[in-house]
Specification:
There is one protein chain. With 263 residues, this protein is of the alpha+beta class. It has two domains: 163 residues, no CATH class; 76 residues. The chain is 48% helix and 16% strand. A hairpin with a 2-residue loop joins β3 and β4. The longest helix has 24 residues. It is globular, with a radius of gyration of 19 Å.
Length: 263
């Protein structure tokens, strides 16, 4: 599975793009819209289910505090993402992404999330989606079976006015870069020389699997990622900037979570 993502300035534009994807035959369980701050007020009450309840399909995660219902035949869920706030998601794919981002969401209304879908979740891009949602934007995500379909969907999103996820990632970093340069330079290091590896470490700390864990719990995964970067850049000084960036990425995420709790 390949994830294709577009960031929209308005929910209406995002909904139009979703409708176009459906018209091309994209299945409901392979497409979602994430949008901030709005629960569908007229949703019927649908009980959440836990992993222990029989006959209800595979649960995505724990289900405390989720609101779910049906709107226009589509499953709609609302839950709080740590560090972001209240988010509404359409479809089981949306529930899976909310759960990967740390929200308390599970399978509802007898829905079933297939293993093939979870394998395609873009966990390394979640922080980009979250930044867009914090800015009030909406995010459309689709899972494609192959590169040919992914290319068609990217083209559709571009025509509908979406910002590509790579562009959104760059905007996210631009917003942080000055503060990170100041911090790293204060350590006596040259940010201009080390920025690439510092940023790789920073982003690695924001991967869905690395969040909300004690430092000693993620050391092995951090070391594995560091080794991958070192193999790719064998002639560069990678370890110190990557490690410093990783530590700052953890601090950044914890600060976002603290701010969202206060809000």
């Amino acid at each position: 599975m390949k994830a294709v993502t577009g960031v929209f300035r308005s929910r209406s534009d995002a909904e139009r793009a979703m409708a176009q994807m459906r018209s091309l035959g994209v299945a409901e369980n392979k497409i979602t819209l994430l949008t901030p701050d709005k629960i569908e007020k007229d949703l019927p009450s649908v009980p959440s289910v836990s992993a222990e309840q029989p006959g209800m399909g595979k649960a995505i995660g724990s289900v405390v505090g989720a609101v779910a219902g049906l709107s226009g035949g589509a499953l709609v869920m609302a839950a709080i993402i740590p560090g972001v706030g209240l988010i509404t998601a359409i479809g089981l794919l949306g529930g899976a992404i909310l759960a990967a981002a740390g929200a308390s969401v599970g399978a509802v209304a007898g829905g079933k999330l297939e293993n093939s879908m979870t394998e395609g979740l873009p966990e390394d891009e979640l922080f980009v989606y979250e930044d867009a949602l914090r800015k009030g934007r909406s995010v459309v995500i689709a899972l494609s079976d192959d590169e040919a379909e992914a290319s068609r969907l990217r083209g559709l999103l571009t025509v509908e006015g979406a910002e590509a996820v790579d562009a959104a990632r760059e905007q996210w970093w631009i917003g942080l870069r000055s503060a990170e340069k100041e911090h790293y330079s204060a350590l006596g290091r040259n940010f201009g020389d080390d920025e690439q590896f510092y940023r790789l470490g920073f982003e690695s700390a924001l991967h869905a699997r690395m969040r909300c864990k004690e430092y000693d719990q993620v050391l092995a995964e951090m070391a594995t990622k560091l080794e991958e970067v070192q193999r790719k850049y064998p002639d560069s000084n990678v370890e110190e900037p990557f490690t410093k960036g990783y530590e700052r990425g953890r601090d950044y995420y914890q600060q976002l979570c603290a701010e969202s709790k206060v809000a």
